User: Which sequence fits this backbone?
């Protein structure tokens, strides 16, 4: 069933399937974009302070997974806890604010 919003009555637009050639070209474009993103190594171009912080956060998460510890949690993990506890304003809070509001480390 075609997208009903795309072909509204009286709009003069008729829904057509993409041709085989268009589909192939789109796939090629996606592959090119993916390889370009890989070759740019975006993380390598970040400031050293940011890279260090990201590395430390990743190491903390990996350590917690290995040991089964409970803290420090990522923002996503804290947000899920806040959602379960129905903490107001949680979507606008950062990681540290969520941790303080939840009484976490």
Assistant:
């Amino acid at each position: 069933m075609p997208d009903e919003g795309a072909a509204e009555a009286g709009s003069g637009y008729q829904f057509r399937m993409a041709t085989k050639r268009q589909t192939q070209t789109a796939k090629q474009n996606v592959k090119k974009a993916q390889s370009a993103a890989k070759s740019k190594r975006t993380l390598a171009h970040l400031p050293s302070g940011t890279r260090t912080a990201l590395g430390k956060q990743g190491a903390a998460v990996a350590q917690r997974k290995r040991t089964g510890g409970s803290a420090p949690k990522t923002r996503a993990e804290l947000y899920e806890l806040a959602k379960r506890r129905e903490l107001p304003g949680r979507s606008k809070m950062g990681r540290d604010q969520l941790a303080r509001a939840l009484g976490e480390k």
Summary: The chain has a mean pLDDT of 78. The radius of gyration is 23 Å. Residues 92 and 98 are 9 Å apart (CA to CA). Residues 43-70 form one domain.
